[in-house]
Amino acid sequence: MRQPVLKPFNDARSLGVILNLCNFNCPDTVAFLDQEAARHGIEIHYLLVNLNRHSIPQWCLDSRMTVINYRHDFTHLGRLKSTVADPFINTEFDFLFAVSNNFHPVVKRIAMLSKAGFKVGKYFSRDNPYDLTYRPSFSERDLELSKEYVANIHLITLSQT
After folding, report:
1. Percentage of the residues of the chain whose pLDDT score is greater than 70
2. Could you give the CA distance from residue 114 to residue 86 in angstroms, rounded to a whole number?
3. Can you tell me the distance from the alpha carbon of 115 to that of 78, in angstroms, rounded to the nearest whole number?
4. DSSP 3-state of 119
5. d(Cα 38, Cα 23) in Å, to the nearest integer?
């Protein structure tokens, strides 16, 4: 059975982030997380989930970003049918942030399969793959979720530093 490993955010060396490309403020979320990662010397990698058949925005063409297409890389039941997400899933990130204000089985599945030490995500049901969940209002955007995740990790690990 998997044992979560929680460490202070300042001590983390790697962060994996799952983002839903349908969310309109993805670039702002990425900018904030990039800034936090740089400030703490954390290597960051993004898995961007394209749930539609929209073209990939220019800002996604970065070596730290892997884009998966829901219709191409997953079955209709949310099971993987390509290996595009495998390197992300198999990386033992110190933290995994699933940053999405909307539930989608693909995000849940990737988070469940992830080898990350500590997983943070939004609470949608009791059956979730996260070690720490957050219940924001439905009007809260992904950028605010990201800020809450970082702030909460800092708060709950204060006694460890």
Report:
1. 93
2. 9
3. 18
4. strand
5. 23
**Averaged pLDDT, 78-86:** 85
CA atoms within 13 A on the CB side of 74: 22
Contact 32, 143 (CB under 8 A): yes
Residues linked to residue 121 through DSSP beta bridges, in sequence order = 98, 133
Report residue 154: phi and psi, to 5°: -60, -45
* In contact, 13 and 116? CB cutoff 8 Å: no
DSSP per residue over 45-100, as a string?
Answer: EEEEEE-SSPPPPGGG-STTEEEEEHHHHB-TTS-B-SSTTHHHHHS--SEEEEE-
The amino acid sitting at 28 is D
Strand partners for 80: 74
Q: Which one has a higher pLDDT value, 147 or 139? A: 147
Q: Give the total residue count for the chain.
A: 161
**Domains of the chain listed by start with CATH number:** 9-160 (3.40.50.2000)
In the numeric block, which tokens belong to residue 62?
């970065």
